[in-house]
Specification:
Number of helices: 12
Number of strands: 4
Structural class: alpha+beta
Order of helices and strands: HEHEHEHEHHHHHHHH
Helix content: 55-70%
Length: 259
């Protein structure tokens, strides 16, 4: 049986199809992904228009309404191309396109190619981006372990939690992939596994859960895996920049143990 949301989405597709100034419709979010859905899951939709005039007209006719069954965001073709671009203020939204579906593309396949571009990490920037996120990961891990040494357990757990985001950015970036939102992480690791066995869902996810619960041993084990992968990728200098505490971060020596 067709749901109200499906009917509303169908009406939107008909409207866009008949609108000469509209170029297509892209479905994002859980509906695009087809996973983790419930009765309250809405349809996050982007309507792409040919130019600013067409955009302004369409937005008057179909304004964005937060909380609607079908949430419609409109943008020009150039705006859509720029959204979530690397280095932009909206780069954080890049994972939203991991499971996007182009429902209507009156340009042929132009919208699909724009979506595909948002899912790639350019090879010429990959190592530098991984370098930055790797250093941020080690920084947070170091602060977490140091806070634990002086009895600041809450601070240690918060810093451990903060280390996870740059860690995930590092391992996905090194494989030329966009790091997924947390909601999609387990699915991505299981259905589209990363190349290193250390990042398998069955091994990595329990590590991360225990780190969030304050396990120093799991932090140290994760650091050892990260160090191995980073050195193999040519990023050993980032790790070495944290000497003399590298062995300590591995769990193999005392703090500030010079060798």
């Amino acid at each position: 049986m067709t749901t109200p949301g499906e009917r509303e989405l169908g009406d939107l597709l008909e409207r866009v199809g008949a609108d000469e100034g509209a170029l297509g419709v892209v479905l994002l979010g859980s509906r695009g992904w087809g996973q983790a859905l419930d009765d309250r899951s809405d349809y996050d939709v982007v309507v792409v228009t040919a130019n600013q005039e067409a955009l302004e007209r369409f937005e008057r006719e179909v304004p964005f309404v937060r909380g609607a069954q079908v949430e419609v965001v409109s943008d020009t073709l150039e705006g859509f191309r720029a959204h979530a671009a690397i280095g932009s203020a909206s780069e954080w939204a890049r994972p939203a396109y991991l499971h996007a579906r182009v429902l209507l593309d009156k340009t042929g396949d132009h919208l699909a190619r724009i979506v595909a571009d948002k899912l790639a990490v350019p090879e010429d920037t990959r190592l530098e981006r991984a370098r930055q996120s790797l250093d941020a990961y080690v920084n947070s891990s170091h602060r977490s372990a140091r806070n634990r040494m002086v009895g600041l357990e809450t601070a240690a757990r918060l810093d451990a939690g903060e280390s996870i985001s740059p860690f995930l950015a590092t391992i996905f970036t090194l494989e030329g992939r966009v790091r997924p939102f947390n909601k999609h992480l387990a699915w991505e690791l299981r259905e589209r596994p990363l190349g290193d066995e250390a990042w398998s869902a069955d091994r990595l996810l329990p590590h991360l859960e225990r780190i969030l619960c304050g396990s120093l041993a799991d932090q140290q084990a994760l650091f050892r895996d990260v160090e191995r992968v980073a050195r193999a990728a040519g990023l050993g200098d980032v790790i070495d920049g944290w000497k003399p505490d590298v062995a300590w971060l591995r769990g193999e020596s005392e703090y500030h143990a010079y060798s």
